[in-house]
């Protein structure tokens, strides 16, 4: 499913696919960044995410004459009826925090030492309990996108798990006799489900529906039509618990067996009791608590939408109305005529004293629907595009009756392979007498197939006939020669049908990465104010999700509250930012306004190493290459002068070279290498690369980074020619921020030290694991990437990095590599500061709740072992705090008062929420650190998994200091002049992973890897390793 999800992360991180879509890290002008980059092509979008991609701001720059994007909207959602947060919940939260057991558990957790030598199974659920709720900041009341679930069930639910398998038609002996004829077919685009995989999607939905119809009788049930069924009473099952289903939707008499396992008890009363007391009487120490019960509730609340034939259900929790009103969908038109539909997400969540239902807007891109003949007219003869769109889509095929009686026609479902192609029936294992197709997308008169005897009346057997003649003689049906023939078989065994008899089913999502045009359309359509989103959730969203289907829900003792909940939030004060004054003589304080500040009349606080040896290269292509070279040279000179004016020490003149004009005809790497090789004896520190045109050529960009970061060890900075020639001071400054970071400088810092840094040397770490997604090939065998950054200075401005690969889809960092790489971070910290850290604060990006315990049992163990290897035996081991940061969640907050919002009508930057939608015993909070420029701001969610750093503080101070640290860190993203939406350690780690994808781009795109990627064989698998050149390895090369 292709959809816009803010982060380009990607996201649900939940974790699954990571189609990151993040900005590359050092390229300006292409809108690849998030939320409000001064030089980016788009700013934010719905759920505006990162908050600022970088940059120097010279003023507000508001356009003139732009239409009012809030026309017809209210300023805040439901201003006339704003209930205060439920006082009974607030009272319960306070009582739980004051309870003695919280202190006891916090103390016990502080004593936990996890290493590879200890058995930790008995403490995996013992995360640090919340020491207190935060108190600092201005109190505000906020709407949140949750409804209260009133659950009165007094008895446990029952859960069946299902296993669906196709029944083999042939006994083992008969199969052996048939030999090769019954061997599994080669897998292709239209491969059927095999016995191991089983049916999926609509087919599985149909089979489970049939099976349940045989056993449920009048027992209330709900299912997600995959492998779980929730019921109020046992089903009357056959003795072997297996139900047989005849599946004929595809025109074959396939038989499936549905095996019911269970029922298991889903202890709903125990969950309700736990939420009231935060004391688990079952003795279960796992996390999250009562996950099976919460899943069961989500299945029940989602059953209405999932069973509705007028809605498409994607994933576990998203539902899209197929008959939505015009304002709920958006046609993308040419070239594929896909459409965006606004759908709705729902999922039950536990909170202190209650269960709440999270509901949010969600947007998906769907394929066109209807008769292929109508689609052919829409595509206006562009059958190459139509063929691409139709491939793999499910359709309804009308099978005509031989006696020509329309009433006897029947409908079967098939999967379209594509339009008729000249290579149909050709290939290994193909049958003799392949079809004869005159051209791709040929009509019925131009497609012939070999008709075996005996043939229908009027046709000759064992001879070729056209599709047109076949339908005319056999069915009396005249095919319109205007339309192409559709193949609903396979490439080797095509089955041809007229376009007029094939109807594409509605609700089929685009299952690839969206194109740039689709992404722009998605952003334009989905970018809606908090008021609009809250209104949709409370009105049409409830209808789509069936939240008012009281008759069904009440049978399970569930009722959904009618209004969104309100919660208490706090607006934290922003820190003061420090630069050097314009003369470079003394520090100058810059005040933060709505999460932003500017660099007028200031310089960077600390320049990096002098750039004494640098050169620049102008890349171009085509017959008119380098016609503007003199203009480019003049702009480069102006840019260098600007950098000098900002306090960045760079030599006025570049190194000499024979010719810095590079013309790319085929490979950018081949064109650049001679120049890079020529400059090698002069040992350049930095290369400025002017890329051709107004839009990035990804292949050129990738080759520049591979050559600079991996092969030659040159720091590089790219800029588009069209942008450079504008001679824009904002662009020059934006590039300057990145250059200074790469050279080890500090662009800005906080005026007041972060409190935890006063306790002694502190290293802050961020790391992330990303997986190959949204690729044009199967991801099996492709490596996952781990990126880690760690601070090396008191100002938290420099974050050198390390990156490595590991097995596909492995979420936890490899134990041995984690230990080795963490040792390297500790040694580098000591090299730069002459001391080892006393405290280590780690931001682990993006793991799901179900993986929290693995972070402690696997990754923390490696970190402890790394510390043991580096620290002298006589030294006290460092105190470690691990915080998981997550952006890919569905929690949102909306203002209730226009005095507590920014111009985009989002909540103010610095708003933190730690109660109302959280569990009192789990130490977590939501922080909106950035200023949402448009759309609805998405807060970051932070959860503490281990705390040894803050535990020594008084309870309330510990909560306040962690929130303050996190918020202030968000102002230290080095290439931005605004607060970003997620903590820089996690942010930098993600940018690093994105850069690593550049290094592996050939492999990820299905090509052979270049020599700059070494191969390390482990067992029978070959895993490419990334080796950053030693000249740049200690720098922020990735920024």
Regions with little confidence, pLDDT below 50 for 5+ residues: 1-66, 100-125, 178-195, 1007-1020
- How much is the radius of gyration in Å? 31 Å
Helical run tally? 23
Distance between the termini: 30 Å
How big a fraction of the residues is strand? 15-25%
Q: For the largest sheet, list the strands in their spatial order.
A: 35-34-33-36-37-41-40-39-24-1-38
Q: How can the largest sheet be summarized?
A: 11 strands, mixed
Q: Taking all residues together, what is the mean pLDDT?
A: 87
Q: By helix and strand content, what is the structural category?
A: alpha+beta
Taken from the alpha-carbon principal axes, the silhouette is: globular
Query: Could you estimate the helical fraction of the residues in percent?
Result: 25-40%
Strand runs, count: 43
Helices, strands, pairings?
Elements: H1 87-98, H2 100-110, E1 138-144, E2 146-151, E3 157-166, H3 172-178, H4 201-215, E4 221-223, E5 228-231, E6 242-247, E7 254-266, H5 268-277, H6 291-306, E8 311-314, E9 318-321, E10 329-333, E11 338-351, E12 354-366, E13 370-371, H7 372-379, H8 383-390, E14 394-399, E15 410-415, E16 418-419, E17 436-437, E18 447-451, E19 463-466, H9 467-475, E20 485-487, E21 496-498, E22 502-504, H10 516-526, H11 530-538, H12 540-545, H13 550-555, E23 558-560, E24 565-571, E25 577-581, E26 587-590, E27 602-603, E28 614-620, H14 629-645, E29 661-663, H15 668-679, E30 686-691, H16 698-712, E31 715-720, H17 721-724, H18 729-742, E32 749-750, E33 762-770, E34 784-790, E35 801-806, H19 815-833, E36 839-845, H20 852-870, E37 879-886, E38 893-895, E39 911-913, E40 924-928, E41 940-946, H21 955-969, H22 984-999, H23 1001-1004, E42 1014-1018, E43 1021-1025
Parallel strand pairs: 28-29, 28-30, 30-31, 33-36, 36-37
Antiparallel strand pairs: 1-24, 1-38, 2-12, 2-23, 3-5, 3-7, 4-5, 6-7, 8-9, 9-11, 10-11, 11-12, 13-22, 14-15, 14-22, 16-20, 17-18, 18-19, 20-21, 24-39, 25-26, 25-27, 25-32, 33-34, 34-35, 37-41, 39-40, 40-41, 42-43
Helix pairs in contact: 15-16, 19-20
